[in-house]
Amino acid sequence: MSTKAQLQELIQTELRGIKFIVVSNREPYIHNWKDGRIQCSQPASGLASAIDPILRASGGVWVAHGSGSADVEAADASGRVAVPPENPSYTLRRVWLDKKLEREYYYGLANEGLWPLCHIAFNRPVFRPQDWESYRTANALFADAVLEEAGDGPAVVFIQDYHFGLLPRMLKDRNPKLIVAQFWHIPWPNRETFRAFPWKEELLDGLLGNDLLGFHLRYHCTNFLDTIDRSIEGLVNTEHFDVTRKGRVTVVRPFPISIDFDEHVQDATSSAIEEEVERWRQRLRMRQSGVELLGIGIDRIDYTKGIPNRLLGLDLFLEQHPEYHGRVQFVQIGVPSRIQIGQYQALNDELDRLVEKINLKWATGNWTPIVFFKEYFDQHQLIALHKLAQFCVVTSLHDGMNLVAKEYVASRADGDGALILSRFTGAAREFPDALLVNPFGIGEIADAITSAIEMNPEERRKRMERMRRAVKDNNVYHWAAKILSALLKFELPAPDTIGEFDPEH
């Protein structure tokens, strides 16, 4: 296990004088106009909470797409702004993308192409030549920004996710001295599935520009190596998990991501959370309706999350167990996502119809079986809901990890609660004590809800205790420290001077 302090000590000791640059599409701080004033906020992001401490400790640079309504005004002429605003300790370098480029690179190629291709959720990917051209252009714009920030000194570049498959090669070709690493936050499909990607040779060559390429699971690493072996020229070493191409080696490793366990425990045990729990009871009218048992689902509204099957599983449970009518209520929080894409709009409509149908079928008096919130809730509100819920349902059809499952477990400082978890999530490897289900099997979901409600309290607590230990021992700082330790095995050029954070650059 690593702590935040241990991670910062590792950075300050081993990366001293070496510029650390992070690249992601989403920015860690966003500036928006509100009531005629510029306000800075932190978008909800597990990635940001994982990497922000690294940047604060190293005084590095975070390169990201500037998407806030006041981002331009808050930054200097080069797109730089010192963050966090209350205690500037690193630089956020914003990259500006016009609406057309953003639509084609991000919503098009990345989220209508690569996202469904990599997730086995049976949604057909869309590959438009113009989207690929825009993906190339966006990657090149980010490459320009990164190279400008890296300058001539030694630098480590840590790239995030599937939006930047071409960036590693672009960087290495222009500055071979850089150490480049990338973490691919979604699954990597098997080689037969990946064959459908029209520009596979170029994308794979781009990814092999990395010195280190990380996935959540060893299974995804194996899929990637198998894809390389059958798709492009390169020497794949399955024993050492690396690829040699054009004389350069790319090391491929699993790094399962996690959350800040200690922060969750601290929040979950605060008096403010208890007040928030009471607000949830009032909002859900639990006392008036007589609800005794609460289940929850918390997701982005995305077809990979398996929300319709989850609701159908609840419907079957109510059909099989009339004795729980009026006693069990399910709260589904669905944060709207990528609504510019037709498949997401259709899913929103489907969920509205399904919730209405199930509620009309079973509701009586003051009791409604499903409460559906299509809105964003902050972390404190979600932790309070975690504490109130007897069970949490995560039924992703395919997921690299799924941090919602870990957040529910971490929030249960009382040691109670049951987790119903899809077998097709990365988290399932770490949580054998969850109630594991096939998310396509509505009957399995219904049976798991029954088990969660009727499980012996002692067994429930033992399961939760083991799951909490797993999250504590493998927290987000452990994830970051493992990646940094792997990076430090590469030979870095000796720094000429000891770098210090300069808020002006």
Strand content: 15-25%
Separation, N- and C-terminal Cα atoms: 34 Å
Radius of gyration: 23 Å
What is the CATH architecture annotation of the largest domain? 3-Layer(aba) Sandwich
Q: Please indicate the count of domains.
A: 2
How does the SSE layout of this entry go?
Layout: H1 4-14, E1 19-24, E2 30-34, E3 37-41, H2 46-58, E4 61-65, H3 71-74, E5 80-83, E6 90-95, H4 99-118, H5 129-150, E7 155-160, H6 167-174, E8 179-183, H7 191-194, H8 200-207, E9 212-215, H9 218-231, E10 235-237, E11 242-245, E12 248-254, H10 261-268, H11 271-283, H12 286-289, E13 293-300, H13 307-320, E14 328-335, H14 342-362, E15 370-373, H15 379-388, E16 391-394, H16 403-411, E17 418-422, H17 427-430, E18 435-437, H18 442-454, H19 457-473, H20 476-487
Parallel strand pairs: 1-4, 1-7, 4-6, 7-8, 8-9, 9-12, 13-14, 13-16, 14-15, 16-17, 17-18
Antiparallel strand pairs: 2-3, 5-6, 10-11, 11-12
Structure report:
The structure is a single chain. Helix content is 45%, strand content 18%. It is an alpha/beta fold and 505 residues long. It has two domains: 264 residues, Rossmann fold; 213 residues, Rossmann fold (3-Layer(aba) Sandwich), CATH 3.40.50.2000. The protein has a ten-stranded mixed beta sheet with strand order 5-6-4-1-7-8-9-12-11-10, sandwiched between helices. Strands 15-14-13-16-17-18 form a six-stranded parallel beta sheet, sandwiched between helices. β5 and β6 form a beta hairpin. α15 crosses α16. The mean pLDDT is 94.
